[in-house]
Specification:
456 residues; alpha/beta; 2-enoyl-CoA Hydratase, Chain A, domain 1; OB fold (Dihydrolipoamide Acetyltransferase, E2P); 3 domains; six-stranded parallel beta sheet; five-stranded mixed beta barrel; 15 helices; 16 strands; elongated
């Protein structure tokens, strides 16, 4: 009994000791946590923009701003590397940044990146502007806005109108970029120079001239430098909390990735030409199905992609005209003039298809020349040979014997045998009976019996 008592007593004491140690640990932990007065980590969203600026980029940036606002992020960083883009898309982006409820930071990076043309406007619109060491910014003169007369419209009036339009677009861009630079206490004179004279400077020079606030070697360096900076957002001053902030990268949707891929002018152009090839091949070979289906899909994707680009209807019509000329060449003896006209029309249409002077948004010559050569070969050789083959007389089967001449080897009254070439056929006379030795011609064929008539 005593042993049982002492055993229970020891168990109770052990439980008390263990429970006491646990409470002590919890108490110590609670004290330690209450003593930790460090500020909570901030939240920063990141979106990477690389390549030409167009409507798809605009949609992604607007969605990134909304998502950062919904997540109560301390800032949205746009890692930028662009040669420029469409003026309308650029205007939509700068407007979204200026009215953003979340501080927007434009960081021209990584090393070797640039903020060209449209990139200048986007950088000037940001609440904070930064660049990696080996980057540059500038050359923001508006181009590709219909500010030059066509090759055939070189009259003095046309030149005057073009110059007036050029001044109008340039002055509007200058006023816009100066207003954004002044709003964020940056150098408005250099901003104007970047538009008027296409000036371009390095990151170190940009910092020296007050075009940007920071030069950062990487994202962590940028977060550390701008921590505690006061920015004005929607009329309210906000202190940035970016030291050791958690960075969450914005991932575009599959639709945005798909549209961004299609927005490549070279891909859109190739899809359009493949679509034309497929439809024409289907028209000349009814029932092939696959070329027609592929052609329709490619054309739908091509025209969908062209919605995001400044398409020129004159360029598109020239391409269609070129294809019409190639098709006519198959049927009309033009001694090569239609082919030559088609080549010229296709080249001009390809060059004019995208109505902009921004190189990144134009169809490259490396795509145009091979496409023209393939198109010429397709129509002049492949399609021509195919159509001529369709027009040839059938040389095999029952159809191939129709029209052939031979000799009756027995009387046909109405049936008998005839010799056609080196072959003997059962034959049936049409009309008058045929005598042995008469020359006959085949008028029809029904399996192994041919119908013939005497050659008069």
């Amino acid at each position: 009994m005593r042993r049982l008592f002492f055993t229970l007593l020891l168990v109770c004491l052990a439980f008390a000791v263990v429970n006491g140690q646990t409470d002590s640990v919890v108490a110590d932990t609670t004290i330690t946590d209450s003593a930790d007065t460090s500020p909570p980590r901030g939240l920063v969203h990141l979106i990477k923009v690389e390549g030409a600026i167009h409507s798809v980029v605009t949609q992604s940036l607007k969605r990134a701003i909304k998502r950062a606002d919904d997540a109560n992020a301390d800032a949205l960083i746009i890692e930028l590397d662009t040669p420029g883009g469409l003026l309308e898309s650029t205007h939509d982006i700068t407007k979204a940044i200026l009215n953003s409820p979340v501080p927007v930071v434009v960081y021209v990076a990584p090393d070797g990146a640039r903020a060209g043309s449209a990139g200048v406007f986007i950088t000037m619109a940001a609440h904070v502007a930064a660049m990696a060491p080996s980057t540059n910014i500038g050359a923001a003169t508006p181009v590709g806005m219909g500010d030059s007369p066509t090759a055939t419209d070189t009259t003095e009036a046309a030149q005057s109108d073009a110059e007036a339009m050029r001044r109008k677009v340039t002055n509007d861009a200058i006023a816009n970029v100066r207003a954004m630079a002044e709003k964020h206490n940056r150098n408005p004179d250099w901003a104007e120079k970047a538009v008027r004279e296409a000036a371009s400077i390095t990151a170190s020079r940009a910092l020296e001239l007050g075009v940007i606030e920071y030069i950062a070697v990487d994202l962590d360096d940028l977060l550390e430098q701008m921590d505690g900076m006061i920015v004005k957002v929607e009329g309210h001053e906000i202190i940035l909390n970016t030291m050791n902030a958690h960075v969450e990268e914005f991932e575009p949707t599959w639709r945005e990735n798909f549209l961004n891929t299609l927005a490549n002018p070279n891909l859109a152009y190739i899809l359009m030409m493949i679509g034309f090839y497929g439809l024409i091949f289907e028209l000349y070979n009814p029932g092939a199905i696959i070329p027609g289906v592929v052609g329709v899909i490619c054309l739908v994707l091509a025209f969908f992609a062209l919605q995001t680009l400044p398409i020129s209807w004159a360029g598109l019509l020239l391409i269609v005209l070129a294809i019409v000329m190639f098709v006519l060449e198959v049927y009309v003896t033009s001694f090569g003039f239609l082919t030559f006209g088609g080549v010229v029309s296709l080249i001009m249409g390809s060059v004019l298809l995208i109505d902009t002077d921004v190189p990144a948004l134009q169809v490259s010559w490396g795509v145009i020349i091979p496409t023209v050569l393939v198109t010429v070969l397709f129509f002049v050789f492949a399609l021509t040979l195919g159509i001529k083959a369709q027009g040839r007389k059938v040389a095999t089967g029952n159809e191939g014997i129709v029209g052939e001449h031979g000799t009756a080897v027995a009387d046909l009254n109405p049936r008998g045998k005839v010799k056609i070439g080196a072959e003997y056929w059962k034959a049936e006379a049409e009309g008058d009976p045929i005598k042995e030795g008469d020359e006959i011609v085949v008028t029809a064929a029904d399996r192994l019996i041919v119908k013939v008539k005497r050659v008069s």
